[in-house]
């Protein structure tokens, strides 16, 4: 079995209008993959610093995966939440990115988006009551040919730093470069 | 009338921290026919019959603690179900039944009484003539030399042994000889509370046997001994502990191995028949487009010899409204798995590239009219993995009506008219295919990563270059067949 070691951290979230941000992250992979060690999902602390619209997390990611095929390459999914004064939180950004396919250190800048309110009433509700909307059926954001029917608003970016190590891939004739 | 000649026999008193179940002894009972082998034979009988057996009868048996061996009488008695009324008797009956089923019907001279049998020997435990003897000296030697005394001699005094004789806390075991009459060979007692282990007579070996002379109708000479086969010290316990540790380690290793592999069947890595390529495309963001509420439609155009294994060749991102920095974020991931026969690849050929066409479309919020904001495309070479993974694609669109003003009016009132098929605009050799004007619009940021798994017999070097190569390879193949 070929193996991948993913070490890194979620550095920061930038250009978000909302203060008090935290991230929930998870790594998804196909059926050929197996998580050997480490947490495949987690949550950062809430950063209250809103100077320059930057929130720093420095949240570690340390994962060991094994695979018997190259299909279903692992994907990092991050949801950014904002916490209000009443300690209620709502999603303000969703993003995905593939784990880099080349070994070494990678600085990823992941663009995020959030679900847009469909009506004026929804906008008011979002602004003053509930906060951002989320998707009940999470699989919709991963697949779907008619995905353009999901209306989103562009949010900020999340900076992630990942070091990726590959083991036994060459043994199985897998070429990266 | 019975006369027994008893040699010097001593009680061995030991204290052991080991568990008594580890006790392992070997009893040897030997009948002597030849006087020569009796060093202290006092009553030599002259004129022995000529047919007297000269070979000694020997019976050896290895025993564990509280192991029941039946005598002939017991075997016959407990074989009858009618005789067995108590639980113990029933248990013995069952054991004998099983022995009979296993064709083990033989009863030797040696048999045992265990604690459950409640056997009471006629004489008190230990002979009266017990003395402080060599064994005590051995104790002193052991103490002086600081030898491991897990099973060590503790004391050997007559009073001591007698004191222990009536103690009910002792678990007893008697080793008997089924002679005429029945003889008690060894008595073993063990007290669990303090690990006191008393054996009478003490352990010995065949070189130093105890002698037994039975003088009934005829004189019979026997020698017997009890050898301690138990592993001394805490070796057994250590072995058990080591085994437990080994078992634990083995379990842990098995668990780790299970984690590393799904199952024995699944351990095989997938080796495709052809070269397999996984294309990971991410549409990251767009900027500088005219209208809001954008989404991107894309379509892969694959060479004919490419087979799609997984994923769709076309798709669309979600609709996105721009943020304060006039950037449309998509963060859309798309995966396509394809198989290619790499023998058909020709270096630097346009045929060996995957074309991805992008069509950026905006949707009017009021009338839900679609407008084309831009089209663009990239070509991904199949032959080699490109070092460049990030593409900043410049988009363009057709100028409707041939002028900017008409184009503005048409787009404002009617929406966009997609006169160019976005999957055809980048066809090979098509220079201004529709003969119309175009205008540059925004940028599309795309990232495409490739992972290739070449087949095991990668025949890159054998790639067909010319007709001569084909003919020569044909002849080689034909020669091999012949």
Automatic annotation (TrEMBL), chain A:
Keywords: Cell projection, Cilium biogenesis/degradation, Cytoplasm, Cytoskeleton
Key word Cytoplasm present: yes
GO CC terms of this entry: MKS complex
Lineage top rank: taxon: Eukaryota
GO BP, one annotated term: cilium assembly
Cellular localisation: Cytoplasm, Cytoskeleton, Cilium basal body
Keyword Cytoplasm: yes
Chief location bin: cytoplasm
PANTHER family, A to Z: B9 DOMAIN-CONTAINING (PTHR12968), B9 DOMAIN-CONTAINING PROTEIN 2 (PTHR12968:SF2)
Similarity remark: Belongs to the B9D family.
Name of the protein described by the UniProt record: B9 domain-containing protein 2
Organism of derivation: Polypedilum vanderplanki (Sleeping chironomid midge)
UniProtKB/TrEMBL annotation, chain B:
GO cellular component: MKS complex
Subcellular location: Cytoplasm, Cytoskeleton, Cilium basal body
Keyword match Metal-binding: no
One GO term (biological process): cilium assembly
Keywords assigned by UniProt, alphabetized: Cell projection, Cilium biogenesis/degradation, Cytoplasm, Cytoskeleton
PANTHER family given in the database record: B9 DOMAIN-CONTAINING (PTHR12968), TECTONIC-LIKE COMPLEX MEMBER MKS1 (PTHR12968:SF4)
The name this protein goes by in its record: Meckel syndrome type 1 protein
Protein's organism: Polypedilum vanderplanki (Sleeping chironomid midge)
């Amino acid at each position: 079995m070929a193996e991948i070691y993913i070490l890194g951290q979620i550095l920061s979230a930038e250009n978000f209008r909302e203060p008090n941000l935290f991230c929930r992250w998870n790594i998804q992979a196909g059926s050929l993959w197996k998580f050997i060690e480490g947490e495949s999902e987690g949550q950062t602390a809430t950063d209250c610093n809103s100077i320059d619209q930057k929130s720093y997390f420095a949240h570690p990611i340390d994962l060991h995966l094994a695979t018997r095929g190259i299909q279903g390459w692992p994907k990092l999914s991050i949801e950014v939440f904002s916490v209000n004064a009443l300690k209620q939180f709502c999603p303000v950004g969703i993003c995905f990115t593939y784990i880099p396919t080349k070994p070494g250190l990678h600085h990823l800048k992941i663009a995020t988006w959030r679900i847009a309110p469909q009506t004026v009433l929804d906008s008011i509700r979002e602004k003053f009551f509930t906060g951002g909307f989320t998707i009940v059926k999470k699989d919709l954001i991963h697949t779907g040919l008619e995905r353009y029917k999901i209306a989103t608003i562009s949010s900020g970016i999340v900076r992630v730093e990942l070091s990726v190590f590959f083991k036994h891939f060459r043994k199985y004739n897998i070429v990266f470069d | 009338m019975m006369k027994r000649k008893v040699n010097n026999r001593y009680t061995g008193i030991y204290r052991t921290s080991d568990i008594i179940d580890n006790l392992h002894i070997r009893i040897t009972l030997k009948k002597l026919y030849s006087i020569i082998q009796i060093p202290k034979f006092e009553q030599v009988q002259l004129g022995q019959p000529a047919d007297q057996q000269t070979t000694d009868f020997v019976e050896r048996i290895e025993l564990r603690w509280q192991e029941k061996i039946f005598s002939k009488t017991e075997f016959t008695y407990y074989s009858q179900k009618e005789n067995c009324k108590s639980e113990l008797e029933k248990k013995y009956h069952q054991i004998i039944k099983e022995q009979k089923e296993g064709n083990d019907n033989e009863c030797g001279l040696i048999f045992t009484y265990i604690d459950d049998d409640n056997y009471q020997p006629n004489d008190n435990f230990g002979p009266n003539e017990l003395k402080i003897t060599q064994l005590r000296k051995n104790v002193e030697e052991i103490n002086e030399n600081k030898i491991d005394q897990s099973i060590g001699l503790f004391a050997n005094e007559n009073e001591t042994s007698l004191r222990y004789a009536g103690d009910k806390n002792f678990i007893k075991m008697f080793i008997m000889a089924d002679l005429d009459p029945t003889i008690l060979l060894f008595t073993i007692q063990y007290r669990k509370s303090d690990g006191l282990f008393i054996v009478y007579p003490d352990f010995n070996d065949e070189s130093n046997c105890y002698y037994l002379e039975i003088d009934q109708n005829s004189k019979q000479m026997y020698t017997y001994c009890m050898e301690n086969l138990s592993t001394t010290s805490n070796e057994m316990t250590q072995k058990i502990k080591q085994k437990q540790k080994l078992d634990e380690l083995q379990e842990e290793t098995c668990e780790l191995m299970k984690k590393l592999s799904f199952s024995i069947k699944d351990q095989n890595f997938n080796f495709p028949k052809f070269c397999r390529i996984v294309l990971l495309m991410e549409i990251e963001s767009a900027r500088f487009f005219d209208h809001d509420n954008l989404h991107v439609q894309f379509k892969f155009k694959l060479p004919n010899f490419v087979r799609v294994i997984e994923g769709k060749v076309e798709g669309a991102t979600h609709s996105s409204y721009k943020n304060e920095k006039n950037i449309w974020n998509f963060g859309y991931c798309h995966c396509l798995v394809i198989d290619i026969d790499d023998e058909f690849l020709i270096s630097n050929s346009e045929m060996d590239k995957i074309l991805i066409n992008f069509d950026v479309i905006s949707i009017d919020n009021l009338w839900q009219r679609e407008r084309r904001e831009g089209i663009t495309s990239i070509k991904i070479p199949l032959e080699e993995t490109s070092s460049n993974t990030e593409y900043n694609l410049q988009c363009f669109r057709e100028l409707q009506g041939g002028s900017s003003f008409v184009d503005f009016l048409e787009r404002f009132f009617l929406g966009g008219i997609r006169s160019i098929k976005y999957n055809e605009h980048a066809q090979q050799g098509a220079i201004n295919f529709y003969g119309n004007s175009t205008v540059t619009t925004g940028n599309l940021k795309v990232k495409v990563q490739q992972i290739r798994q070449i087949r095991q017999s990668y025949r890159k070097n054998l790639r067909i270059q010319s007709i001569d190569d084909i003919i020569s390879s044909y002849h080689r193949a034909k020669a091999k067949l012949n």
